[in-house]
Amino acid sequence: MNVRRWWVGLGVVLTAGLSACSPQDGAAQTGQAQTTQQTPTKSTPTRSTQPRTDPKSGLPFIAAVQLPREGQQTLRLIAAGGPFAYAKDGVSFGNREKVLPQQPRNYYREYTVKTPGEGDRGARRIVCGGAQAGAECYYTADHYASFQRIRP
Fold this sequence. Notes:
Elements: H1 2-21, H2 23-30, E1 61-62, H3 69-80, E2 91-93, E3 108-112, E4 125-129, E5 136-140, E6 148-150
Parallel strand pairs: 1-6
Antiparallel strand pairs: 2-3, 3-4, 4-5, 5-6
Protein name: Ribonuclease domain-containing protein
Signal peptide: 1-27
Region (Disordered): 23-59
């Protein structure tokens, strides 16, 4: 019987607690209008309206600052017109894998992104196309198996 009284008592306490938490019920019980104090809300930064994927290629975007340090250096060299460390930098990229958007022959050029610890060119590249150097560039870390569009 003591257990039953305990449960009943708990129910009364919970019911009273819920009533005290409800502004409308509390106002009805006391006959007074209750006001609620609004606390200032912090403005949450909105997500960027920039798309996550390039609408032209369907490839995910990557910001230049997210590239490895060596990739950022390669972008600077491309913009400056060189000098490049490897003889094959700036040669035509054929897009045989057809991962990048189809373009006329010799549209794309490829550039090596140095890979620390590699004795040769490694697998990382930046491929750019368009009339201006760096106008449309893509990054691959896996030797053309996948690409990310470098956000202009």
